[in-house]
Specification:
The protein is mainly α. 57% of the residues lie in helices and 4% in strands. The strands form two sheets. A three-stranded antiparallel sheet has the order 3-5-4. It has a two-stranded antiparallel ribbon with strand order 1-2.
């Protein structure tokens, strides 16, 4: 099917509303617009550069953890959850009670990402994998009663307070399983020639249009992107997350998706998506470059610490995945005494690697601020 001739689906009259029934996507896709080819080349080049960095950066999984935290915080923010990335790094006891519901949702997303990526070693990208991930996402939080781990069997909607004033009504639940089955086949169909980045652009649109779960569709749909890229070998590590791009361009993101459904404008959506991949991959590459520079600098600094250098190096390894800590974190992770942990922290503060951020005499919290700031920009 040519993008220029694309018909997104049809509006089906129900009892007192109309649901949008999208067409299946598992077939050939072509286009005439040369801009798509240029954007596709740009996005693939940026993705390749990002992947190269993920292959050469030592202990890359330490830094991937911070990418996952940033993704969890940003993707949840799009859905209205108000937890900062600094708060997402804290334990539940350190979060004020009125903020814990939001905090749990972000932490669940972190668990969902890590579980899904690990599952790819045994299970290909599939509806089964998405259902398992969805169950982790909703476990013990506000959506726990909305069929976690199962496709919906009732009608849902987007925007508005009910079906009568919704801004968009996804397909009837009777068609969800068939549409998701078609989408799964599209991910793995080797008999059609469709570039992977175009496939995942179409797949994200189709997933969000089907809205197969009662809750959590936005987060699972955005997580689908890195899962696809890792599953098909475009990324060796899950280092690309588009939620930051979607959040910074939230109105354009929602408008681009809706214009496909209303005006059949798949071309605009694919261009928007490819531009997002290129921008996000380039930003990710630059962050890895800055991490390498910072890592070299701080590790050279701790080499001057004499007999404490080995312990300080282990402390840095902890800080790369947990850049906000208390002294007790060092005690537990490094198996050192309280006086040793306090001395280590003071040395890292003196070397301007850590800064104290609470201003308290007890229960002090410290931040590896220069590293943390790389993920806040």
């Amino acid at each position: 099917m040519k993008f220029e001739n694309f018909k997104a689906g049809r509006w089906q009259q129900r009892y007192h509303y109309k649901s949008f029934e999208p067409i299946p996507v598992n077939h050939e896709w072509r286009w005439e617009d040369p801009t798509i080819n240029a954007l596709l080349e740009q996005a693939n080049r940026a993705l390749g550069e990002l992947n190269a960095f993920s292959l050469i950066v030592p202990d890359i999984d330490l830094f991937i953890q911070m990418h996952v935290v940033k993704e969890a915080q940003t993707s949840s923010k799009i859905e209205g959850t108000q937890t900062g990335i600094d708060e997402a790094l804290l334990s539940e006891e350190q979060i004020s009670p009125e903020k814990r519901d939001d905090w749990r949702e972000v932490r669940n997303y972190i668990d969902a990402v890590n579980t899904a990526i690990a599952s790819l070693n045994e299970l290909p990208l599939s509806n089964r994998l998405l259902k398992q991930t969805h169950e982790v996402l909703l476990h013990g939080v506000r959506g726990e009663y909305k069929q976690p781990g199962e496709f919906r069997v009732s009608q849902n909607w987007i925007g508005g307070s009910s079906l009568t004033d919704a801004s968009f009504i996804p397909p009837h639940p009777d068609g969800v399983a068939e549409l998701m089955g078609d989408l799964e086949k599209f991910w793995h169909n080797k008999e059609i020639v469709v570039p992977h980045l175009v496939r995942i652009a179409i797949s994200h649109y189709q997933f969000e249009t089907i809205h197969p779960f009662l809750d959590g569709n936005g987060r699972i749909g955005r997580l689908l992107i890195p899962l696809y890229l890792v599953n098909h070998g475009l990324l060796s590590k899950p280092s690309l997350y588009l939620s930051d791009f979607f959040e910074r361009n939230r109105a354009s993101y929602y408008d681009a998706l809706m214009q496909v459904r209303i005006s059949n404008d798949l071309i605009h959506w694919v261009k928007f998506f490819l531009n997002g991949v290129a921008q996000t991959a380039t930003k990710g590459r630059d962050i890895f470059r800055q991490i390498l520079t910072l890592r070299t600098e701080v590790e050279e600094s701790v080499l001057t610490m004499g007999k404490r250098a080995t312990t300080a190096h282990k402390a840095l390894q902890l800080l790369y995945s947990k850049p906000m800590i208390e002294a007790t974190d060092f005690e537990k992770a490094l198996e050192i005494s309280t006086p040793t942990a306090n001395t280590l922290i003071q040395t890292l503060v003196d070397k301007k690697i850590l800064i104290e951020i609470t201003g308290q005499q007890r229960g002090r919290m410290y931040a590896f601020e220069r590293y943390l700031n790389l993920f806040l920009s």
